[in-house]
Amino acid sequence: MQSIELTADQRYLHCVRFEPQQPPCATLVIAAALGVKQRFYQPLAKWLCEQGYRVITFDYYGIGQSLDKPIQRIDTDIIQWAEQDINRVLAYAIDCQDDEPLLYLAHSLGGQIVALADNAAAIDKMVTVASGTGYWRNASQQVRRTSWLLWYFAVPISTPIAGYFPGKKLRMVGDMPANAMRQWSRWCRSKDYLFDHLDAQQQQRYAAFDRPITAFHISDDELLKRDNIENLLAHYPNAPSTLNDLTPSMTPHEGIGHFNLFRSEFKHSLWQNHLLPALRLD
C-alpha cells in the first residue's frame, strides 16, 4: 500500500496503490461515488490485491485526501473530475502497466462520467455497481420523497452561506465543493440527467466508448431503480453490456443497499461469487 501524489492542471490528487506480491493479473482503478472517500473502498482494494490485482484508489479533487486548500477555495465541478482527475489517474495506471489489462471498477458516479476522460479508450473492461442516471423523479421512492428538500432548500441555502456544501453536518451526501454540488443539483433536476448538459463533443465521447461493461443492479438499492441503470447503459450505445441483479438472498445478510457491497462482510459472498468473476476478461 503506497500513497501517490498526482497533479492534473494544478489540481492535487491523492491516490493509493496496492501492489500484489506476484506480477499483477490486471491493473484496476476504483472510481468512487459522489462524496465518498477512497478509504471506503480500501478493504475491497486490499482483498483484490490479494487476488493478484494491482489496485489504484483515488479521491476526486476537493474530496477526502485530495484537498490542497480549504474546501471553500476549491474550484471544481464534476465534469472536471472526469476530464482532468479520472484522466490523470488512468494515465498513472497506464504508466504502471506492463502487458496486463486495465480494468475500471466504478461505484455510482464513477460509471456515469468515465467516458469524458480523453484516455477512457485505454480501459479494457468496466464494471459498475449501482451506477445509473439520477433524475430525481425517476429515482427510488425514498429519493422522490426527500430529494426536493436537498435540491430546493439545502443546496441553494447552505452552499452560499458555507462556501461549500456542508453535507456532513446536514447528513446529506457529504461535504462537496460548491460548484460540483450545484452542477449535480442541475443534473438531478433534468430529465436526462447529465446528458441534458453535455455539448456535442462530450456526447460523442460516450458514443466512442466501446469497452465491455458489466453492470450490477442491487435489488434493495435505496437510491436507484433498475431503470436508472438501463438508462445509463443506453448512453454507451457502442459498448457491449451485461446487467446483473444482486439480491440480499445471495448473501448471509439482510440487505445490501446502494453502498454496502463494498463492505468486507460481503467478501465471501458478493465479492467472491459475483464481483471477482465480473472482473475477468472473456
UniProtKB/TrEMBL annotation:
Domain of life the protein comes from: Bacteria
Keyword vocabulary terms for this entry: Membrane, Transmembrane, Transmembrane helix
Residues passing through the membrane, by range: 148-167
Pfam families listed in its UniProt record: Hydrolase_4
InterPro entries documented for this protein: AB_hydrolase_fold, Hydrolase_4, UCP037442_abhydr
Record domain Serine aminopeptidase S33: where: 23-239
Name of the protein in its database record: Dehydrogenase
